[in-house]
Amino acid sequence: MRKLENSELERISVEDFKSARKTPLIIILDDIRSLNNIGSVFRTCDAFLIEKIYLCGITAVPPNKEIHKTALGATETVDWEYSENCLDLLVNLKTDNVKIYAIEQVENSVYLQDFELLQNQKYALIFGNEVFGVRQELIAKCDGTIEIPQLGTKHSLNIAVSAGIVIWDFFKKISY
After folding, report:
1. CB neighbours (10 Å) of residue 58?
2. Which of 24, 75, 124, 153 could form a disulfide with 62 if both were Cys (CB 3.0 to 4.6 A apart)?
3. Half-sphere exposure of 67 (CA within 13 A, CB side)
């Protein structure tokens, strides 16, 4: 077994990324404080050809030196937009027939492994503030909630880790 060299990874160009067929998934980051989390989510979205990221509320936007540290250029490939009011964004997405799910621990949430995607349906996933999570007013506007099962003592994951887990799971379910 031999580790691959960077030249063997078959990376696509920025132009090829922009024109590639995207995974029909939208990521919403609402009131995220950590610039490293924001950059890491951009990088994960690049890896799985995610359609778009919305940055809402106090979430910082590119260009930003601290976001760039973890995004490593993904802010140049992944389509993104700032929306100050996340509630207004949800209303607009719903009019476009996007199903919206909060990634949060709530009553009657569906465990990630049990969530079944509908064919030919576009989804948006909301990740909330590192301390307070997804705001209740946003949860009330969602089509449902998805929870990552956790068995340890902490029952909380970093936003970037949560996004990586959920995006990978959606990508698998959409692609295979």
Report:
1. 11
2. 75
3. 17
Cα 31 to chain center, whole Å?
13
The contacts of residue 158 (CB under 8 Å, 6+ apart) are: 37, 130
Determine the distance from the C-alpha atom of residue 90 to the mean position of all C-alpha atoms in its chain, rounded to a whole number.
Answer: 15
Q: Cα(23)–Cα(20) distance, rounded to whole angstroms?
A: 9
Residue in this structure with the two tokens 């951009």, named with its chain if needed: 42
Q: Please give the Cα distance from 91 to 4 (Å, whole number).
A: 45
At 163, list the tokens: 């996004």
Digit-coded pLDDT (tens) for 92-133: 999 999 999 999 999 999 999 999 999 999 999 999 999 999
The answer to whether the beta carbons of residues 75 and 68 sit under 8 Å apart is yes
DSSP-assigned beta bridge partners for residue 29: 55, 127
Measured on CA atoms in the order 149, 53, 125, 156, is the torsion positive or negative?
A: positive
Look at the pTM and tell me if it is higher than 0.85: yes
Lookup: tokens for 33: 């404080």
**Amino acid at site 176:** Y
